[in-house]
Structures are given as C-alpha cells and as structure tokens.
# Entry
Amino acid sequence: MKILIASTFIPPIAGGAENVVWETAVRLTSYKDVEVHIATIGNKKFEIRDRVRIHYFPIKPLLTIYYSLIGKKRIDSLFDENKFDIIHVHILLPWLYLFRNMPGKKVLTCHGDEVYNIRWYQQYFTKKAVQNADAITSPSIWLQEIAKKSFKMPVKYIPNGVDTKIFVPGKGKVKDYVFYYGRYIERKGFLELVNAARSLPQYKFVFAGAGPLSKIIDRPNMKDLGFKSGPSLVKLIQEAKICVFPSHWENMPLVGLEAMSCGKAIIATEKGFSEIIENGKNGIIIEAKNTESLKNQIISLMENYRIRHHLENNARKKSAIFDWNSITKEYYELYLSLLKNK
# Structure
C-alpha cells in the first residue's frame, strides 16, 4: 500500500493538525505492507525522515491557483513517479482540490476551518474537491456533525492521539505553578486566563508558546518561556501543579491529551475537551469565556490536594485510550476498507 499524506506544513513547523500528520505517518511505516509519502510546503525538494518520504513544494501566493496552473507540472511529476493507493489530505485547500483527479482513494480529515469558515472565494474549489473524496474523517464529534451537514456526506470519527511513552508522569518534585502552553490568541481563551492570573497574584502562571497577545503577560506572577517542544515541554508539564486550557473551542486538542497523559489535573472548556474529559472525574470542565469560573477552579485545584490527586490518577488512565498506535490502526483499517471496495 502506497500512501500519500498531504499537509501544508509538518513539524517542526507544527500546530495540532501538523502533529497528527507526522505522528500517524511515522507509525504507518511500521506496517510491513505500507510505504508512506508526505506532500508539504518547504524549501527542500525531497528527503527521507524516520522512513517517511517527504516531497516539498515551494511556497507560493495563492497555492491552490498557482499549483493548478503554473505549478501543475510539479503535481504531475509527483504522480508520474509514484502510483499512490491512498491520498490522505489533512487540509482541504489546496491539497484535496489539487489531487482531486489523481488516481487513488482520497481521504479528507477535517481539522476545523475547512468546515465552518469557508470564505466566498473558496466555495468553488471546496465543492469540487469534496465531490472527489472517498471518505471524510473528523477528530471530534461536534465537528463531525457540522461536517456532515456542510458536505452532505458520511463523516467517520477518528480522534487525535497522544504518545503515552513520551508524555508520562514525572518522577521529580512538582512545582507550584499553573501551566498553559499553546498559541497566545483570543480563541484559546488567553485573555480570560491572563485576567484570572492578574487577580490571583498568590499563584505563579507559566506560559509556553507564542502569539500576538504575548505583550499582556506583564505581571510579576507571570512568566513567558516562549515556544517549547520535545523533552523541555514534557518536563514543564510534569513539573506543573495544574494545566489550564480555556479555549473558546477546540477540535480534539492534543494539549489536553498530552497533559492528561502526564498525569495532570487540567481545567478546560466544553467544546472539544469534553470528548476526553469527564467533568470531576479526570479533569474539570468550565464554561468558555467565563473568567470568574476559571479563577474559582484554579483556586480549588491549587488548594485541594485530594481533588487534584483524584483527577491526576484518572487522567492518565483516560489518555491511554488515545495512544497514537491505536489511532493509527483506525486510519490503516479505513485505508484497507477503501481499497477492498475499489
């Protein structure tokens, strides 16, 4: 089975969708009958990394239009050199549109904007692309329902995952801080979190990430570490007393799974997080955009060891369900079913 996975970027340039692409691609190479390729944007032409063959396309303005016209030879060349059985795109535009007429079964995984934030000038390309999809998946149940209505097609739920061998409970001493990592933007509930931190000077708040709101991290009890990944990020999660993710909405957030896999008590919001958190059992769910509720729950968890310890034990157990190996197997079985019905 020869698989082409398409994503505009891959790690180390990474958000949630890009990490999903990479984690599943690497694990798919462990199947003896699978050869994995990735199509992405970059300055190189080709490389092999962790047994994954990566084909880079130069970044250009208006990618969909450019590679439909001037850059089409680059697309044709990729498919002349390779006969792909599966074409799995993790962003609808430009990739599903560009590959819509190429041979191979086509899978679209929806990560958000391509479902509910389609701009008027994208509607034509979106419609043409989706018409050629053989299967659509969504990592979250709430987005699955929106995608069904938007695309008028069946949508399969395959959640995101976590590497439970990397994100593990720490053995060292826990430090006395509240931890947030991710983008510093309004949609992540960053304003609410900073406002809560300003009204709780008795607690230290540590932030790891980047974004336009970084300037509001301006009080003595706040510390901005910038973007972190790998072992340094794992250590920060392990050493935190609690983790907080007050996003307005998320699409099956990796940050929640990672913190839970490290055995952390987390405070998060309903849309996205409620699919992995049972409120009061393995985490705390609060109303989005509610600074007062966020502040009260931070105080509760920081001060109450018994509740915090209860959530920590159950968080790690829950995260095991979402181990990347199990999630990758679901994608592999989907590919097999599509090829069986070829």
User: Anything to note?
Assistant: The chain has a mean pLDDT of 94.
